[in-house]
Amino acid sequence: MPQAYWIAHVHVTDEEAYGRYAKLAGPAIAKHGGKFLARGGRYTWLEGNEKSRNVVAVFPSLEEAEACYHGPDYQEALSHARGASERDLMIVEAFEE
């Protein structure tokens, strides 16, 4: 089963509330086998609408990444990000040769 990547582009509008999100989101993601590959580091924006925070996490499968997003732990975390950020989030299945 191919891995999946959770890719988020975020513009934070309320640092305090978003900090609460980040504190809860990490354990929720780990609970589903997710591991951060990039989280708010340096980046070069080349096209489209720039957002200053970029996150990439890898999960064991697309299904596990979706289960994380819809699960109660992540939804609790997400309640702090709503209204505290503008976000684009997608899950992309990895390519297998």
TrEMBL record:
Residues 3-94 form the DUF1330 domain. SUPFAM superfamilies: Dimeric alpha+beta barrel. It comes from the Bacteria. It holds the Pfam family DUF1330. Gene3D superfamilies: 3.30.70.100. InterPro entries: Dimeric_a/b-barrel, DUF1330. PANTHER family: BLR0684 PROTEIN, PTHR41521. This is DUF1330 domain-containing protein. It comes from Pseudooceanicola marinus.
